[in-house]
Design brief:
Helix content of chain C: over 70%
CATH architecture of one domain in chain C: Orthogonal Bundle
Oligomer: heterotrimer
Shape of chain A: elongated
Number of strands of chain A: 0
CATH class of one domain in chain C: Mainly Alpha
Chains: A mainly alpha (230), B alpha/beta (400), C mainly alpha (257)
Structural class of chain C: mainly alpha
Order of helices and strands of chain A: HHHHHHHHHHH
CATH class of chain A: Mainly Alpha
CATH superfamily of one domain in chain C: MetI-like
Strand content of chain C: under 5%
Number of strands of chain C: 0
Largest interface: A-C, 57 and 52 residues
Chain lengths: 230, 400, 257
């Protein structure tokens, strides 16, 4: 077989090709279904992960000594390979959505908690003092000043977590969940190229799209970071 | 120990020639400088790409051996650029620069730099090396023996006033002032004849800065390095500089001379403005009482008759008289109290509370005058013998 | 030996699970032979080491040189973003079609190449950022004292960037160990094979043994590089005079995800 470039592939397209366009055309419905699944799995993981991380970050900020154990635990979760984590969970929670989401959420915690705490810590002391001096109550200051100024760092964390999660969702196919991973898994089990290539390419595209979306969100949330920059 | 790394012939016997105050030069022209130049810039121009006008424009300057020359001016005047062209951190667009009689471009950059100490505002200590290893940087580059380096490091720590316990610490454990001392020690490590200092003290607080400035002055008295110091602080330039080069935006040399010369006769409005409002006071800080012709003052011996005191008071136009016993100053007596006394010494006396010495600056003397009830400053020598009296008139005369 | 909590909890409700795991792990026969745990572990470590070394060779030198010139910020940002967007499972899965297309066969090398691909971005970005962000004053002092450019790089910039360089290697290595597990899906025998076969054969003992060993290997890798980092950067542990942010500490905003 000669090394091929996509253009050549198009010419002699078939089931053994890198990507068989006819198959793609026939399976647009399935591809769309997988896309919806992939997005769902990602969004659930991010929303739950953000909520859990917010609680953990608030605990870490309020009780400083808990920061190291919290991030240490999240770090261990983060270091465990996804397949292993799912393997631990399957005998308990089965091949279920719950298993998938527990795993996915676990991986967001380290990044989100660390960036939330770093973002709040990065608020200049002078700004805090000025806010206190003007009579903010502590909680109000936290919401209106600290959290707002920490937004860029927090969004940076959300971006990393989101892109990572999009990638990890593919792995959940191995425990019977969907998303693009199901396409990949299908292709692997049949040694059939096309679904693998489609699944991989689309998950990369989705990751990039999500990243761009969050960059846009960050710009909207932090107008001061743009104004007056030279 | 220090002589092993004599470089480029520029490290002459220090002391004799350098310690003698240079002949007061008529140094308002750019090229007029001390007779023996350790660093010579001739028509040096630096034009950065994309800049509309050159950062330094045909600057000529001679830096005297063993002298501290301060380059001072507002930001954008090219003073740092000028400094960095001497050790070729920046290459001039045109013109020549000689250090120790050798054109800087005739030697590889890194070799040139190893012969020139370099101190910068950010200090730039290597965070991953201990203080001792930081100081040993250039000696190591030059391949000194380990034992020599260790001895040299210890010696330098003493010279710059650094506790030897600190040598094994990492820079992050040091205060800003200590770090700056290490920076100076590191620059001096291989005993380079020339030291370049780029705003070395602008990042430390005023109290530490004053300490570090005093340390440098003391060190320079010992070592007589050829130092070029860049600063935006005209007071620092006046305090430390043997000569000051005032640069204007675009690297124009507006005036070059000793601090006293520059303060006495600013070459133009720019210099005058840059020196600031208290130019007279700054000048006074450079002149000592010893340089001022003292007046005798309304002084009489304690055993003199009141009539003699009356005459002295009349001559000086005051209503008090100083009372002496030989060379010893007893105090002063009010003219009104003299009437009933047989001798001046019998009248009630008030002791002088403030004295100045010949080494005192006349700025301090002025402070004394202003604060004294008698409107004079009494000058005593180091053995407390009466030398004379200073009035505002004397000071004004000295400043002319 | 520490066992993750969920497993213990499961052991309470289902005593069989724990004993299945334990008996599989401690049966000597399971460790020996061509497809034994020992062989799989060795293969897993082998491919990880080779991939990390290759990636380091490819990534770190250009990153250091680019960081030294303080140029190429756009390239660096692009590498981070692309690196993050590459889903490891997808990359590994692509080994199959690519190998078939080019006739490379399956096994060690195709998987290794995929792992290298994943390992390069974190190493590159961390090394680049680390060198670029060395305090300019430190570099200026080094140059001003007469260090040659080579010396500035090797004696000043690289040591000061080493916390971040090592962070990059650590992140990559952990990711490589994790992703090598997935190599089992494309014909590379490693610890992941235990998990895949455990699923397929519904053998919970095998499944959990594989998961356990992979997790331990990842954590050991993480711990190993943390230790290397500590030993390589004694100045970061020294007592500090003032609590000011240390430039050379790995930034909290993770470059390492």
């Amino acid at each position: 077989m000669t090394p091929a470039v996509p253009g050549v592939l198009l010419a002699e397209n078939g089931p053994d090709s890198f990507i068989w366009w006819a198959w793609v055309g026939d399976h647009l419905d399935e591809i769309w279904e997988r896309t919806v699944q992939h997005v769902q799995l990602t969004v659930i993981a991010l929303v739950v992960g953000f909520a859990v991380s917010t609680v953990l970050a608030l605990i870490a900020l309020r009780f400083r000594r808990t920061y190291t154990p919290i991030t240490g635990f999240a770090g261990v979760l983060y270091a465990i390979p996804s397949l292993a984590l799912f393997a631990f969970l399957v005998p308990i929670t089965g091949l279920s959505l719950l298993t998938a989401e527990i795993g996915l959420v676990s991986y967001t915690l380290l990044i989100l908690v660390r960036n939330m705490v770093a973002g709040i810590d990065g608020v200049p002391a002078a700004v805090r003092e000025a806010a206190d001096g003007m009579g903010y109550t502590p909680w109000r200051r936290f919401v209106a000043v600290d959290a707002r100024l920490a937004t860029p760092t927090i969004v940076a964390g959300v971006r990393i977590a989101a892109v990572t999660t999009v990638g990890l969702v593919t792995v959940t196919a191995l425990i019977g969940q969907g998303g693009y991973g199901a396409l990949i898994n299908d292709g692997l089990s049949r040694s059939f190229n096309t679904p693998i290539v489609v699944g991989a390419a689309l998950s990369i595209l989705l990751a990039m799209a999500v990243d761009l979306l969050l960059v846009g969100a960050e710009r909207l949330l932090t107008p001061w970071a743009r104004a007056g920059r030279r | 120990m220090q002589s092993q790394q004599t470089v480029g012939g520029a490290d002459g016997p220090v002391g004799a020639d350098a310690a003698t105050p240079a002949v007061p030069a008529t140094a308002t022209q750019p090229t007029a400088g001390p007779a023996e130049a350790a660093i010579r810039l001739v028509a040096v121009t630096k034009a950065f790409p994309q800049a509309t006008s050159p950062a330094v424009d045909r600057l000529s300057l001679e830096v005297g051996r063993g002298e501290l020359t301060a380059l001072v001016g507002p930001s954008g005047c090219g003073k740092s650029t000028t400094l960095k062209m001497i050790n070729r951190l920046i290459e001039p667009t045109s013109g020549t620069i000689e250090v120790g009689g050798v054109e800087v471009r005739d030697q590889p950059r890194h070799e040139l730099r190893r012969q020139i100490g370099y101190v910068i505002q950010q200090i730039g200590l290597f965070p991953h090396r201990t203080v001792a290893d930081n100081i040993a940087t250039v000696p190591r580059l030059l391949g000194w023996r380990k034992a020599t380096i260790r001895a040299r490091t210890a010696e330098l720590a003493g010279q710059v006033g650094l506790d030897r316990d600190l040598l094994d610490r990492y820079p992050s454990a040091l205060s800003g002032g200590q770090q700056q001392r290490v920076g100076v020690a590191r620059a001096l490590a291989a005993d380079p004849p020339v030291l370049l200092m780029d705003e070395p003290y602008s990042a430390v607080d005023p109290i530490v800065r004053a300490h570090l400035q005093d340390d440098l002055a003391r060190l320079q008295q010992e070592l007589h390095k050829t130092i070029v110091l860049v600063t935006h602080d005209v007071d620092e330039a006046i305090k430390l500089g043997d000569r000051i080069a005032l640069l204007n935006v675009g690297g124009h040399l507006e005036q070059f001379g000793t601090p006293a010369e520059v303060l006495r006769a600013p070459a133009n409005e720019f210099v005058e403005r840059f020196l600031g409002r208290e130019r007279g006071l700054k000048r006074m800080a450079l002149i000592t009482v010893a340089e001022v012709p003292l007046g005798g003052g309304p002084m009489v011996q304690a055993d003199a008759a009141p009539a003699e005191a009356e005459a002295a008071m009349a001559a000086e136009g005051v209503d008090w008289v100083g009372v002496l016993a030989g060379d010893e100053l007893l105090g002063w007596a009010d003219g009104a109290d003299l009437a009933g006394a047989a001798r001046v010494g019998d009248a009630p006396r008030t002791p002088f509370r403030a004295f100045v010495r010949p080494g005192t600056t006349i700025r301090e003397a002025l402070d004394n005058i202003v604060n004294s009830r008698t409107r004079v400053a009494v000058v005593l020598d180091d053995d407390d013998r009466y030398l004379g009296m200073l009035t505002v008139d004397h000071l004004a005369e000295a400043l002319e | 030996m520490s066992v993750p909590a969920p497993l213990l909890a499961a052991g309470d409700s289902d005593p069989g699970l724990w004993s299945e795991f334990w008996s599989y792990l401690t049966t000597a026969d399971n460790w020996t032979g061509d497809r034994g745990i020992a062989a799989l572990l060795v293969a897993h470590v082998q491919i990880s080491v080779v991939a990390v070394l290759l990636a380091a060779a490819v990534a770190i030198v250009p990153a250091v040189l680019l960081g030294h010139t303080r140029r190429g910020a756009f390239l660096a940002v692009s590498v981070v973003n692309i690196g993050r967007a590459l889903p490891s499972f997808a990359i590994i899965a692509l080994v199959l079609p690519v190998s078939l297309e080019w006739g490379l066969g399956l096994g060690f090398w195709p998987t290794c190449v995929a792992l290298v691909l994943l390992a390069v971005p974190p190493m590159f970005t961390n090394a680049y950022t680390g060198v670029r962000d060395v305090d300019p004053g430190t570099v200026e002092a080094a140059v001003g004292m007469g260090m040659t450019p080579t010396r500035v790089v090797t004696r000043v910039e690289v040591p000061n960037a080493s916390p971040l360089i090592i962070t990059g290697v650590r992140v990559s290595a952990v990711q490589v160990v994790a992703t090598a597990t997935l190599g089992a899906l494309v014909g590379f025998s490693c610890l992941g094979s235990l998990i895949v076969e455990g699923f397929a054969q519904q053998n919970d003992g095998k499944l959990l043994t594989g998961a356990f060993l992979v997790a331990v290997l990842s954590l050991v890798t993480e711990a190993f590089f943390s230790l290397v980092q500590r030993l390589a950067t004694p100045w970061l542990r020294a007592p500090r005079r003032r609590a000011r942010p240390a430039r050379s500490d790995p930034p909290a905003v993770a470059l390492d995800a």
